[in-house]
Amino acid sequence: MKQFFIIITLIIFLPIVANASGLPDTDGDGISDYDEINIYHTNADNPDTDNDGYNDWTELNSGYSPYAAGNAKLEINDADGDGLTDKMELNFHTNPVNPDTDGDGFSDGDEINNGYDPAKSGKAKLEKKIFIDTKNQLLGYNLGEVRLGLYPISTGKRGMETPAGQYKVLEKNLRRWSSKAKLWMPYWLMFDARGFGIHELPEWNDGTKEGANHLGIPVSHGCVRLGVGPAEKLYNWAEAGTKVFVN
Ligand SMILES: [Ca+2]
Ligand SMILES: [Ca+2]
Ligand SMILES: [Ca+2]
Ligand SMILES: [Ca+2]
């Protein structure tokens, strides 16, 4: 009988250590077996997957990659070389150590760059959305639920506010002339037929360009101005039909 109790005690207390949430955590690194296997794709039997002396929990919580020894940062490291950083893989719920999570022949990075869902095989697409925050003078853009970028902008000044509402990209034009304002609007993405759009800092006919010092301050006539670099990036990413939310 005594032996029986010892065996039961061993079965209960030896095999699995529970983490803070009460779920089994075999290697005792603070991340449950379930999360290691299904979310982080780390080794559930080794608290330090990349054997660099820092356990997986510590690395993930301080922005370091648990998939590469040393000082590799999550937001820079690309453990599987698929063009998507470890951090973006975790955001998109893809596998950071498998370049083709859904096994459909297209890498996770290629799928994201082309708007496809890297977690679903085939042609499932993720929705593209642009968010314009006039209060904080910021533009963010998302693929599905994942934020891809956030940039300072300049929206309409008092009396000429950028109108709030839900829109979509109606027209793309590399360089549009505004006959009303007498200026060029590079990387033009029109979202409202009345003439409201997103574009790079405007240029006058004599070649002078609006300074970036106005970004973060509402000074436009209603359009949404983006800086040099972000405007081109957003232009190349967005397509006709991409949803635009202004508030
Ligand atoms: Ca664990
Ligand atoms: Ca480690
Ligand atoms: Ca990757
Ligand atoms: Ca794929």
From TrEMBL:
This is L,D-TPase catalytic domain-containing protein. It comes from Candidatus Falkowbacteria bacterium CG10_big_fil_rev_8_21_14_0_10_43_11. Keywords: Calcium, Cell shape, Cell wall biogenesis/degradation, Peptidoglycan synthesis, Secreted, Signal, Transferase. The active site is at 199 (proton donor/acceptor), 223 (nucleophile). Residues 128-247 form the L,D-TPase catalytic domain. Pathway: Cell wall biogenesis; peptidoglycan biosynthesis. One of its GO terms (molecular function) is transferase activity. GO terms for biological process: cell wall organization; peptidoglycan-protein cross-linking; regulation of cell shape. It is found in: Secreted. It comes from the Bacteria. Pfam families: TSP3_bac (PF18884), YkuD (PF03734). One of its GO terms (cellular component) is extracellular region. PROSITE patterns: LD_TPASE (PS52029). The keyword Oxidoreductase does not apply. The keyword Secreted applies. Coiled coil: none annotated. Residues 1-20 form the signal peptide.
